[in-house]
Amino acid sequence: MFQSLAWGPITGSDKGCIVAAVGVQGKIVSNYCPANLNSGQTENITITCKNIGTASGTFALLFCAASPPYTSCDVAQYVSDAFVLDPDMTKDFTIPITMPNNQIMYVAAIQHAEASEWITDDTVQCSISLPVSPPPTPTAAVSQVSGVGIGLLLTTISVGIISAKKKPKLGKAIMIGGITFAGIALLTQKAAAKPTPPVSHLTPILSGTYKGYGNIYSPEIYNGQLYFGGWYSDEHYPYDRIYSTDLNNIKDVKEVLSVDKAQVNDPSIIDDKMYMTYSADQTDLTKQSIAVSEYINGLWTTPVPLISQAWLPSAVKVLTEVFIYYTWADLITNKLRRSNVESPSQYQEINISPNPINIDVKYVNGIYYLLGDYWYNNGYNNIYSIGLWTSTDGIHFTAYKNNPVIMPDGDNIIARTPNFSITGNTLKIYFAQQKADWWTNAIYFKDYNII
User: Fold this and answer.
1) Is the dihedral of CA 129, 131, 136, 139 positive or negative?
2) How far is CA 155 from CA 148, 319, 383, in A?
3) Cβ contact 112:84 at 8 Å
4) In this structure, are residues 264 and 276 in contact, taking their beta carbons and an 8 Å threshold?
5) Residue 386 near residue 418, CB atoms below 8 Å
6) Beta strands of 280-408 (E only): which ranges?
7) DSSP character for 287?
8) CA angle 191-193-197, nearest 5°?
9) Whether 334 contacts 375, CB under 8 Å
10) Residues ≥6 apart with Cβ < 8 Å to 137
11) What is residue 140's three-state secondary structure?
12) Domains of the chain, earliest start first
């Protein structure tokens, strides 16, 4: 649903606040995001913007906070006056919000002026929940460093950046559920109201030591080994790498692939070839690619880029052909594509609604099965869950009637990055769950019977 909102003008005339933008780049370097607030509680959200470019520039900050059904910025909306930042200079903003009797979501963006247009440089997002009853000990504030590196966006609430270059003062269309305002899209999906499926309290089969819990996800089962990505321990922060462990001795974790000052994650393995997300620049999602590594003499070789501007691959063998399903990193739609490994530059669009990411695809007895993350709406809240879709041609998929198949449980807020096999009507699913600080993930296992 689109709804027009007037953001109000920024201070100064359009032309008066414009400066040359060569070498200008804004970034939101910190974002105070409390995990929980009580209904009626007022809290100041503090956001710090920085010019990480090499030249002075004119910037503006945009902020929108909304509650379900996410059709307007009903909690708070704000557009700053235009402000000038020299290189390496920062500016703080304090925006008060009052918690309604419901969860909320906010998105903030920094834009810079270029010629007569405004360009979105960076976005951050936050989901704030009501405390469970009885109220827990207040959760410490989380300072989220923004960016679109693998470590943050794989969490992902699919924040996209629209390059339509709209001025902050115009406001244009607002859509929340996805939120779209002045160049920002927060792509959430809204489904019809359904009863919430029963939630069991699972115990992780594997967690790491980073921050006492680990930041591990994207499991992949191959030849009796559990592969996964992330930061298993503190010394591995902040560069993602890939690990493996024997399913019969799951605590014996070994690092199997890393690249100096680069990110590798999301392994998907077919015929001793590992397809993965690879990025040497974690600040720019469009510079990520899908790369391939081969298993030779007991070691995985250095990854070689295969498909540019792409991430989150799932390789599947169909008879004698190998296809890669992946997310196209256009920063707007996160749409799915499929390429044959023999001609990776050619692709087919995969249209699924709602649009999942972090997918895993299997081909069994003439049927394609696809599991992926998506926003499920239970009539009250949007919950980041795992759903199932099926297809007979690998292009046109139909949603499973009882989606979602997995929802986050306990103190986890997100279920994501599934990997599965099929035995009869049973899906054997390995997946990650994520806590409210956005960084702590562990790996879980669950059977799901298809009805």
Assistant:
1) positive
2) 10, 33, 13
3) no
4) yes
5) yes
6) 289-296, 299-300, 304-308, 310-318, 321-328, 336-340, 348-350, 357-364, 367-377, 382-391, 398-399
7) G
8) 100
9) no
10) none
11) coil
12) 3-186 (2.60.40.10), 210-449 (2.115.10.20)
CB atoms within 10 A of CB 44: 10
Placement of tokens 């993350």 in the chain: 373
- Give the DSSP letter of residue 239: S
Residue (of 190, 188, 184) closest to 160 by Cα position? 184
Q: What are phi and psi of 11, to 5 degrees?
A: -65, 140
Q: 153: part of which helix (H) or strand (E)?
A: helix 150-153
Rounded distance between C-alpha atoms, residue 407 and residue 386, angstroms: 6
How far is Cα 257 from Cα 143, in angstroms, rounded to an integer? 30
CA dihedral 390, 393, 395, 396 (to 10 degrees): -60
Q: What long-range pairs does 254-257 form, CB within 8 A, spacing at least 24?
A: 256/227, 256/300, 257/293, 257/300, 257/303
Q: How far apart are CA 227 and CA 214, in angstroms?
A: 15
Q: Which two tokens stand for residue 213?
A: 């819990």
Burial class (CB in 10 A: 0-12, 13-18, 19+), 299: exposed
Per-residue pLDDT of the chain (451 residues; tens, 9 = 90+): 222 223 333 333 332 333 334 488 999 988 877 878 888 999 889 899 999 989 888 999 988 888 875 556 888 888 888 889 999 899 999 899 999 988 888 888 898 887 767 788 888 878 888 875 443 433 333 333 222 222 222 222 223 322 223 333 333 333 323 333 333 333 333 333 444 444 456 899 999 887 777 889 999 999 999 999 999 988 888 889 999 999 999 989 999 999 988 899 999 999 999 999 998 765 565 678 999 999 999 999 999 999 998 989 999 999 999 999 999 876 556 789 999 999 999 999 998 888 898 999 999 999 999 999 998 887 767 788 999 999 999 999 999 999 999 999 888 889 999 999 999 999 999 999 988 766 678 999 999 999 7
Structure tokens at 25: 């780049």
C-alpha to C-alpha distance for 70 and 65, rounded to whole angstroms: 9
Sequence letter at residue 47: I
